[in-house]
C-alpha cells in the first residue's frame, strides 16, 4: 500500500511532466544529433530544482551556481559577471558556498525590477545577505520583492528610491 506522501509525489510528478512535456519535445527536436543522454538531461533538470536550507525561512530557497547557469543558459563565468555588476544577487555561506536566492528569478531570467534594486543596493558595497534581507523585509506593509514584482509603477518607483536612499546612507 502506498503512503499519502508517495501518492502526492506521483501526482506532482504527473503535473510537472504535463508542464514540461512541450518544452522537452521542443528541446529534443532542436538537440537531435547531440550526444546528450536522457540521464544527462534528467540530471540537468534535477540540478535546477532549488534545495532546502535552514535560511529558507527568510531569504530562500536557494539555487547553486550550476543551477543558475542551467536556468539562465549561461556559463558560470557569465553568472559571476552578473553578480559582480550587481545585476544578480548571490549570498555566501559561512563555509564559502555561493548561493542564489530563487526569489530573484522569474521566467528563466532575473526579474528586471529586482535586478534594478540589487544594483542600487550594491553601490553601498554591502554583502549579499544584507541585500537579500532588505528585499524580503517589510517596507510599509509590503516586502520590497512584492512591490518590485507588483507591476505598479508607483510601488516600483518608491521601492527603487528607497533602495537608492538606503544604499547612500549605508555607504556614508
Protein described:
With 172 residues, the protein is mainly alpha-helical. The chain has two domains: 34 residues; 123 residues, no CATH class. Helix content is 58%, strand content 8%. It is built from eight helices and five strands, in the order ααβααββββαααα. Strands 1-3-2 form a three-stranded antiparallel sheet. The chain has a two-stranded antiparallel ribbon with strand order 4-5. Helix 5 runs parallel beside helix 8. The chain is globular, with a radius of gyration of 19 Å.
Q: Bin the helical content.
A: 55-70%
* Sheet with the most strands: spatial strand order: 1-3-2
Give the overall shape, derived from the CA principal axes. Answer: globular
Structural class: mainly alpha
Uncertain parts: none
Sketch the major β-sheet: 3 strands, antiparallel
List keywords for this structure.
single chain, 172 residues, mainly alpha, 2 domains, three-stranded antiparallel sheet, two-stranded antiparallel ribbon, 58% helix
Short description:
The protein contains eight helices and five strands; from the N terminus they run H-H-E-H-H-E-E-E-E-H-H-H-H.
